[in-house]
Amino acid sequence: MDNSSERDVKVSKNYQKNIDYLNRELGVPDNFDIVLREMSIAGKKVAIYSVNGMVNTEVVSIILDALIDLERPDLVVNALQTLVKGRIVGLQVSEVDTMDKILYFILSGPMAFFVEGQEKAIIVDARSFPSRSPDEPDIERVTRGARDGFTETLIFNTALIRRRLRDPKLRMKLMQVGGRSKTDVCVAYIEDITNEQLVNEITEEIQKIKIDGIPMAEKSVEEFILGSKIWNPYPRVRYTERPDVAAVHLLEGHVVVLVDTSPSVMIAPATFWSHTQHAEEYRQEPIVGAYMRWVRFMGIFAALFLLPLWLACALNPHILPEWIRFVGVEKIGKIGLVPQVFLAEFGVDLVRMAAIHTPGPLTVALGLIATFMIGDVAIKVGLFSQEIIVYIAVVTVGTFATPSYELAQANRLARLFLIAMVALNNFIGFVIGALVLFFLLWRTKSFGVPYLWPLLPLDLKALGTVLVRSPLPIKNKRPSILKPKDAIRQPEGHDE
């Protein structure tokens, strides 16, 4: 049966017809985790469908105890109303009359009740999802501040945001994506702040997604709504696992997209500078936060430009002024500098990937092996020069200091591109490569927002908030590039 005909199937008054249809669609009894319980309540047949492991067994027992006490006269007139309003209390209950919606609800966790002679089913939300506690995200740790983070359960994530934003204008628009997976996708925004056109654009793009499933969750959604440009590695949305970061962006006028089964939420739109900020900066005094931000800027700059620039200098020591020639290489080694740089880059990436796939107790041993073999032995046998190891170490630290993992990966590819350009044409190649990267960033947009804003187009006031972590009492305007409905966050008097 195709999807169009399935959507037309209505709940029948014929009890057995309903049961046969659902048993066929859900694979009962072949699917061991689909639970069908049939019983007689007040002289009427009742069937209850649920997914094993996704319902709260204690709540189910309370519901069944309440239903068993019903007498036949109770279900003679308005049987559904008696069940829904009279007996099942304290839970979210709804009536559904189409089979496709019933299948969606059953496979999402709620229970479905079918009563003999009724043309509607009762959906009771007694879900109890398998989940972990909202622990602090590993890649967004702070020394002080909240320790909770998003989990793989959508309803938990929306609750974590609601806890921080008790605004009746906060909207959580739920959609389903995937013809087979029926994955829940939530678009969150504040109605009287966020630009309506931005909300509509993101919502419409999500609704246009036609695919069997999105097991890769938020990344799959991103590629559909933004388009996957294989030649551009830079992330056009920001990901976070911190509820406080998501709440801050909602207050600024951004849209947050949450996908069930993923602990990462998508923040849109995003600029290059969005990926360079970290929650830690706002947990310290403004001057401390500003210092940390500038140190982080230097780390990102070093991760991108230091190694290719050093390689250009090392390959052309004769054109360097006397005072800077110390950056060269005393002893090149048995292979050329360019192969050494590429080997070192690939070696660091290999160790990083190995560390991800290595069990926790063995990561220390992996680190020692990598340090000994790449750092010490490789220098002694002449495979690498000492300078290569030093600069690779600095670049790696700068990469790890980048708050956004996606930006760090993009900068790694950009650095390899610059190294290749230097290998082809020395300093001229470096300049050309840097201009190509600048042009790429200049042309990149995220939902119509220029990627380099507020640098290009220039917005001096907004640029100041990027370069310096300003005190919160003087941040009374939302980012103008988002075109928020309400641009004022607090009265102007707080400027003083």
Automatic annotation (TrEMBL):
InterPro entries: Spore_Ger (IPR004995), UPF0353/GerABKA_families (IPR050768). Pfam families: GerA. The chain crosses the membrane at residues 294-315, 362-382, 388-405, 417-442. The keyword Transmembrane helix applies. Keywords: Membrane, Transmembrane, Transmembrane helix. One of its GO terms (biological process) is spore germination. Belongs to the GerABKA family. This is Spore germination protein, GerA family. It comes from Desulfitobacterium dichloroeliminans (strain LMG P-21439 / DCA1).
